[in-house]
Records
---
Amino acid sequence: MKLILCPDCGDLVTLRVRSVRFCECGASSGQYEANGHDAWYAGKAIPVGALNGDIRRAIEDRKLGLGEEHGNFKAFIFSPAALHYQRRA
Ligand SMILES: [Zn+2]
């Protein structure tokens, strides 16, 4: 899952294919390409990723009541050199 984090307003926004997504203050934006895998971000956006499988497992762990440490998932910041998530001017 690709998201944008705005350093100005703090919004963390999930990208979509059908429309450009913006943070609350409008300083950051991004969108998935039509292939649903590649994406772009613009403005002040910081490109964030999270593994979908990790999130699904964390949700299941929560349902099972396994506790906080089992409901975690890892998020990461994409490198500027990432091939599938690139800055658009
Ligand atoms: Zn913002």
---
Amino acid sequence: MKTIQEQKDNSLNYGKIISVRGSVVDIWFENNLPSIYTLLHSGKDKQIAVEVLTQLDDNTVRGISLNPTQGLARGMEVETDGKELTVPVGKEILGRMFDVFGNTIDHLPPLPEIERRNVHQKPPPLSARSVKSDIFETGIKAIDVLVPLERGGKAGLFGGAGVGKTVLLTEMIHNTVAQNKGISMFCGIGERCREGNELYNAMKKADLLKNMVMIFGQMNETPGARFRVGHVALTMAEYFRDDEHRDVLILIDNIFRFIQAGMEVSGLMGQMPSRLGYQPTMGTELSKLEERIANTNAGAITSIQAVYVPADDLTDPAAVHAFSHLSASIVLSRKKASEGLYPSIDMLQSNSKMATPGIIGEAHYNLAQKIRHTLAKYEDLKDIIAMLGMEQLSVEDRNVVNRARRLERFLTQPFFATEQFSGMKGKEVSLKDALDGCRRILSDEFKDLPESAFYMIGSVDEAREKVNTKTDTSNSKDTSKEDKNTSEAKPKDSTKENTDAAQNKTKDDNNNDQNKLKDAPKENSDEDQTKSKEITKVNTGTDQDKSNDTAKDNNNANQTKSKEITKVNGDADKNKSKASEDKKETVDT
Ligand SMILES: Nc1ncnc2c1ncn2[C@@H]1O[C@H](COP(=O)(O)OP(=O)(O)OP(=O)(O)O)[C@@H](O)[C@H]1O
Ligand SMILES: [Mg+2]
């Protein structure tokens, strides 16, 4: 005989569809109106799940469908067991890939019968939270030095379309998942299915799946599914934290799509939109999700979330709300991406609550502040440089610019995630090496090296190696270069090198040349810069006193003069600069 509880569990309640509008379904129940968040099933094979979101009157509820509503019709029967959305939890889910219903989607044998848990859970109470602050190293220089992440904290990668959020997130997965002793989870919300697939295969290949769980509600799915998939991931994460006492690293791409799905749901439900068309309940919805990402004495949930920033506008309500939940915000800038300075982190806009002397240590803190000051000063000087050129800067300012440009390049890094299309081998750099590099650059140890030497390297010592190998290869190619007229555009040289190399069809050569091609435009500008620097050096050698003497009032007149001169001289300047280089050499010797 069945117990009362079992009878209760199996008792079904039936209703009838009275309207279907897109994903929104209204259902009539004669009695026992289902409560909010109850899952209802309808359709021919009861394959369509609808979650109750509002109760319209004594007999009618309105819900949002988690599947496409194709095939639903008015009058169709709806059944419910009164339960909310549940997903499987347990050790068995490791290495598997799930959808919003907790169904496996990796074409492997189905899961055994295991515990299922409601996806709507409360965040842990304040008294249960732990407040330990530890650093979470990522092996990415710019992040570890300037925006250290918190173990058990929430970090956000903010950026507009195509500035490298997914690539950076993938790189972090690569660098951290292998060392992460706990569980890693990836939750794809409203992004490309292809990316999910690629990540799954990459993880499988690297044999990292065994400690990983993946959950996807990608852009092809209904707003209801995208709205709930984050909760699914957190429910699974909470199981590992609370029941198995393990640390969990959860990566989300992209939390903005969660907000966007909420906006769609809210619109479909007929709620009045709020600012910029967002749902009036955005703040509540986001905190319901974000607050569950918390550390307790049982374990920690560390999360790294990509946040799409609509129209690159960081004051967008979605971005602003997301900011307020995070302990570290990494802002990616389109300008940096367009200059090829990847990862395109805007060091001045990014910040981390960990970056305080008490947590990262006095020395690291001071160094990070110094880097920020240098970069900020360079940012201020950029306008002057653009209008008047480097020559008009004081010697001190010029030094700041040189340091800042070297730092900017040193903080780029070749990624494992981009090996295939950049042709450069990925590099992971320890915090110690990264700090050491920044310190040495700031103390002008590498003044003699061109800026390009710092571009896409790992630790700072590679800069010298890069210069040495470059001079070696350029020496071997010198014979062909020397006949060329120097006034010829340099990019031509690089294309020529390329065609030369194309004849030697070995793979290595091709790779090298790809790098060169990438470096070429930069090198040119760098070389030009160093040339102009040299001119100014030579000049300052003789004119420094003079220029110091000239009153500041005269500056404007001088500037316009020098501008005119540079205009008139045009190409001739190049030859001059060559000559001055020679001059400088003789002076040096
Ligand atoms: N570290 C990097 N090195 C080289 N190229 C990069 C790097 N990061 C990003 N890119 C380039 O930028 C492109 C877009 O990157 P990504 O897909 O990560 O952007 P996204 O911010 O996730 O965009 P979306 O908002 O569309 O999802 C990449 O395909 C790649 O060409
Ligand atoms: Mg992306």
